[in-house]
């Protein structure tokens, strides 16, 4: 994935800005005073750099939706006739039940994740894609276990002590069904900007500011307010984006999956059905680092086989949809996408 280093949109951020991005990954609503104290920077410097990074769209902090209690996922690999790639890609990205869409660097394969109700005969997989003449093949694998996801990834520029200090105590996120109407309204207000001040949220919802502050603090403490930092990996000096599909012996699947989820390059790790039973998404500075990962790191873990697909274009991921003006994967869209209504998938 070649990048013009003179292009201001893809020039890597300096170390100070990368550390400020990493601080937001620890806590999307982190106060500038706290970040300044831990990182050894001036408060005004932190405020100024965060304003600059968010004002030009380099960094966005969004709220991830509450997890529905009964929703699964299917990993799709779709091969498409080259002349029809844009059409199929746009159709997939427009669907609310598809939060991830990547195009391979080879230009003939789409990788996507489809949200599905467990046991459902999804119309996309069983009817729509097979009937599309532009689609030459579809491989589907059910996600059995999520070892890590995009929001879990941390840019490796903070010390362990800094990261631990900036990260709030972990809590198991509540299911969407356990949140009341006020919680849902507050989370919905933060869909596009998770750093929206409490006063602004109060103005939008009509709730007292004291109530907003108390509710947001409770949601954050209970794991109900999950944030995600959206930033182009190339701005972090990570030029190579790839998906690696592996075959691991069943007795070692959990151990290998957990080990890879903790790897600094891995921003997603899934156990799946199918011939390849473990898939990881990785970011690296260059192909040499990717090669070392495949030969050294996977080799040391005893992976039986691995297939690597380099991502040529990110189309849709949490907080990003390059084909629409709307943020992808909002709380409201997931609620609609996973609703068991007759219109779903049509």
TrEMBL record:
Residues 179-239 form the HTH asnC-type domain. The keyword Transcription regulation applies. One of its GO terms (biological process) is response to amino acid. InterPro entries: AsnC-type_HTH_dom, Dimeric_a/b-barrel, Tscrpt_reg_AsnC-like, Tscrpt_reg_AsnC/Lrp_C, WH-like_DNA-bd_sf, WH_DNA-bd_sf. Keywords: DNA-binding, Transcription, Transcription regulation. One of its GO terms (cellular component) is cytosol. The keyword NAD does not apply. Pfam families: AsnC_trans_reg (PF01037), HTH_AsnC-type (PF13404). One of its GO terms (molecular function) is sequence-specific DNA binding. This is Lrp/AsnC family transcriptional regulator. It comes from Streptacidiphilus fuscans.
């Amino acid at each position: 994935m070649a990048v013009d280093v003179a292009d201001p949109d893809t020039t890597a951020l300096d170390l100070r800005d990368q550390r400020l991005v990493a601080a937001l990954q620890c806590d999307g609503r982190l106060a500038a005073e706290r970040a300044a104290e831990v990182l050894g920077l001036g408060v005004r410097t932190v405020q100024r750099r965060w304003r600059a990074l968010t004002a030009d769209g380099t960094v966005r902090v969004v709220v991830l939706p509450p997890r529905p209690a009964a929703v699964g996922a299917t990993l799709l690999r779709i091969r498409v006739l080259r002349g029809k790639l844009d059409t199929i890609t746009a159709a997939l990205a427009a669907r609310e039940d598809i939060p991830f869409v990547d195009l391979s660097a080879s230009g003939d394969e789409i990788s996507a994740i489809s949200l599905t109700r467990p046991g459902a005969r999804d119309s996309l997989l069983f009817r729509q894609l097979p009937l599309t003449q532009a689609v030459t093949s579809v491989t589907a694998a059910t996600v059995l276990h999520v070892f890590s996801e995009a929001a879990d990834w941390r840019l490796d520029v903070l010390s362990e002590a800094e990261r631990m200090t900036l990260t709030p105590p972990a809590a198991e996120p509540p299911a969407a069904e356990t949140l009341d109407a006020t919680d849902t309204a507050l989370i919905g207000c933060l869909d596009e900007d998770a750093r929206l001040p409490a006063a602004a949220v109060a103005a939008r919802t009509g709730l007292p500011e004291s109530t907003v502050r108390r509710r947001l603090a409770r949601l954050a403490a209970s794991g109900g307010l999950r944030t995600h930092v959206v930033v182009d990996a190339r701005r972090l000096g990570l030029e190579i984006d790839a998906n690696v599909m592996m075959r691991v012996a069943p007795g070692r699947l959990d151990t290998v999956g957990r080990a890879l989820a903790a790897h600094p390059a891995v921003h997603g790790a899934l156990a799946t059905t199918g011939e390849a039973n473990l898939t990881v998404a990785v970011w690296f500075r260059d192909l040499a680092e990717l090669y070392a990962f495949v030969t050294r790191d996977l080799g040391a873990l005893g992976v039986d086989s691995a297939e690597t697909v380099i991502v040529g274009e990110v189309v849709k991921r949490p907080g990003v949809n390059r084909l629409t003006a709307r943020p992808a994967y909002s709380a409201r869209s997931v609620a609609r996408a996973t609703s068991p209504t007759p219109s779903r998938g049509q």
